[in-house]
């Protein structure tokens, strides 16, 4: 059963406050599932996971993650930020770890959807990169840079989504001086590389995430105030 506007607002408030009991009561009243609740969005396309991740509500996040599919886990708001962007920017290590683990598990569980989402992200990133290219350069240089960027994009972890400012979660963490988050995410990328090696696949070049973080200093996210 779908939620009314009031019930949707109640779900988003519960997520913002980290109130699992309030969420449960709203769903019982609406006779709705947790999966339905996680589809809720406000006017800026923020979901319950965005709010709970941004504010570090780890128990709430752990409560809803089993019901979150890959599309919800990687959902982007109007600024292109995923829940992981906000958790990383605000320095919530446990939430970051939980989200990355859930995303990696969901990717394995639904390879078809993962392929679809990767393709959409690659296309969007290629368009963003093309729009930002220096058109005064020779055409062959522009093409070579586009090819290099496309290869780097293919090597990114599925959770390493770029927002509208061109930043991945690691970039946001670094710009807000959350070095522990940066190291945590770099470690998860290294684990992914090790898995590829164990499976007999070629070792990919290192991620360009550090370059992203050191590049554009314009921040794509902001802290949420739950007062």
**Which structural class should the secondary elements be placed in?**
mainly alpha
> Mean of residue pLDDT?
84
Unreliable segments (pLDDT under 50, ≥5 consecutive)? 196-220
Share in β-strands: under 5%
Q: Any idea what the radius of gyration is?
A: 18 Å
CATH topology, which one? Serine Threonine Protein Phosphatase 5, Tetratricopeptide repeat
Oligomer: single chain
The second-level CATH architecture is Alpha Horseshoe
Extended strand count: 0
Helical proportion? 55-70%
Largest sheet: none
- Note the run of SSEs as H and E: HHHHHHHHHHHHH
End-to-end separation in angstroms reads 31 Å
Q: What is the helix tally?
A: 13
CATH C-level label: Mainly Alpha
**Total separate domains:** 1
Shape: elongated
CATH-level-4 superfamily name: Ankyrin repeat-containing domain
Summarize the structure in short.
Keywords: ANK repeat, Repeat. It holds the Pfam family Ank_2. With 227 residues, the protein is mainly alpha-helical.
Descriptive overview:
Keywords: ANK repeat, Repeat. One of its GO terms (biological process) is protein localization to ciliary inversin compartment. Residues 196-227 are annotated as: Disordered. This protein has 227 residues and is mainly α. It has one domain: Ankyrin repeat-containing domain (Serine Threonine Protein Phosphatase 5, Tetratricopeptide repeat), CATH 1.25.40.20. The chain is 63% helix and 0% strand. The longest helix is centred in the middle third of the chain and has 22 residues, at 111-132. The model is unreliable at 196-220 (pLDDT under 50).
